[in-house]
Write a structure and sequence with these properties.
- The protein is α/β, with parallel strands linked by helices.
- It has ten helices and nine strands.
- It has one domain: Vaccinia Virus protein VP39 (Rossmann fold).
- Strand 4, helix 6 and strand 5 form a beta-alpha-beta unit.
Length: 282
């Protein structure tokens, strides 16, 4: 998709990929739905297609994240907070995932991009691809876009959209990636259904997901927050199958006893967390 590397998109290219998150119809060159006439916007190359009524009060990053200094403080601060054992478990997790990222090609949609940990690896390792970075919060996407441009990384297309109501047309993605994205969004069933909708037949999703055991304090808290289907392995894979996906591979990369920190709501201190790299196919 040549339009992904352009600073501005023409009406034809927009219509080929973007869709109104409310009614699902085409978006024209003026960032307006051709059916329901809802008007959307962009900011410094971040395209913002979110409807406040549909998406409600979804979680957003602190607006200070736009500051590159604050961004670095957040990233470095988190690494200081987590235990050495957790850092080692994360390292094993990524080492399992890196080669799989390099095998991706075509049109790749990165779910819940956030600070861009997965996106950075996709841009570095999947050279034969066009990449769409997505997040509910345009501020964090703008921060990530600025940071990656400063680093001289190749271009991606940045789309602020609610992953439960994605502003993408059906069947646009050859591949989907996500680093813990499904662990951070409520209503997992809606998210997985949208994931299925935007993928091409035969397309694959590469998901980094963490799980913990049922009947633990972590599971109880996850249920309170509406995340249980994303954090209990059996529930998650049951949902994947019911949606229509085929499981290609599930690898448990590492596991660790969680040590509480001030940035993560869960897992709960002392519970075991399991890190998986998962490939599924439509």
């Amino acid at each position: 998709m040549e339009w992904l590397v352009k600073e501005m998109m023409g009406a034809v290219e927009i219509g080929a990929v973007l869709a109104c998150p409310v009614c699902g119809n085409e978006i024209n060159g003026e960032m307006q739905c051709t059916f329901c006439n809802r008007k959307y916007s962009s900011r410094e190359g971040v395209y913002i297609l979110i409807d406040s009524e549909t998406s409600g009060m979804e979680w957003k990053w602190d607006k200070r994240i736009i500051s590159q200094k604050y961004r670095q403080e957040v990233m470095k601060g988190y690494q200081r907070l987590i235990s050495p054992d957790i850092r080692k478990a994360h390292e094993k997790w990524w080492n399992i995932t890196y080669p799989k990222i390099g095998n991706l090609s075509g049109n790749i949609v990165d779910l819940a991009t956030g600070l861009g940990m997965m996106l950075e690896q996709v841009l570095k390792r999947s050279n034969n691809s066009s990449v769409i970075a997505t997040d509910i919060d345009p501020n964090v996407l703008l921060s990530t876009k600025r940071d990656f441009e400063k680093k001289g990384m190749r271009k991606a297309f940045y789309l602020a959209t609610d992953i439960k109501h994605m502003a993408l047309r059906e069947g646009v993605a050859d591949n989907v990636t996500s680093f813990a994205g499904l662990n951070n969004i409520t209503d997992t069933e809606l998210v997985v259904a949208e994931l299925y909708r935007i993928m091409k037949p035969g397309g694959k999703a590469l998901l980094m997901a963490s799980f913990f055991e049922e009947d633990t304090p972590s599971a109880e808290l996850a249920e309170d927050y509406g995340f249980l289907d994303a954090y209990i392995k059996e529930k998650f894979f049951d949902l994947i199958g019911r949606t229509g996906f085929q499981l290609v591979e599930d690898r448990e990369a590492s596991s660790v006893i969680w040590k509480e920190n001030e940035m993560d709501i869960f897992p709960i201190d002392g519970d075991k967390v399991y890190y998986h790299t998962i490939e599924i196919k439509k």
